[in-house]
Design goal:
By secondary structure, the chain is mainly alpha-helical. It is built from 4 helices and 2 strands. A two-stranded parallel sheet has the order 1-2.
Length: 79
C-alpha cells in the first residue's frame, strides 16, 4: 500500500463517518494495515489477515470458532 492508496482509504473512512456510516475495510492482509485502519476508526475488516477463502459450508463453523470481540480501546489493551 502506497501513500496515495492510504490517503484514499483514510478519506473514505472520514467521509463515511461524516455521513454517519460505518466502514468495512476489504483486503486487509497485515497487522500494520489493521492498526492504521483502527486508528482511523474503521472497526470492521475482511481479508487474509483473518482467513483465506472458505467453502460456503465452512463459514458457519469458522465464525463460531473464531469470532472475537475486540474492545474499543484495543490499542491500549494490547500494550
Amino acid at each position: 500500500e502506497g501513500p496515495e492508496q492510504a490517503a484514499l482509504a483514510h478519506a473514505i473512512v472520514k467521509l463515511a463517518h461524516a455521513l454517519g456510516m460505518g466502514t468495512v475495510a476489504e483486503g486487509v492482509e497485515e497487522p500494520e494495515q489493521e492498526a492504521v485502519l483502527r486508528a482511523w476508526g474503521c472497526t470492521q475488516g475482511q481479508g487474509w489477515r483473518w482467513s483465506g477463502a472458505l467453502p460456503a459450508e465452512d463459514v458457519g463453523s469458522w465464525l463460531t470458532d473464531r469470532v472475537v470481540v475486540i474492545p474499543e480501546d484495543s490499542a491500549t489493551a494490547r500494550s
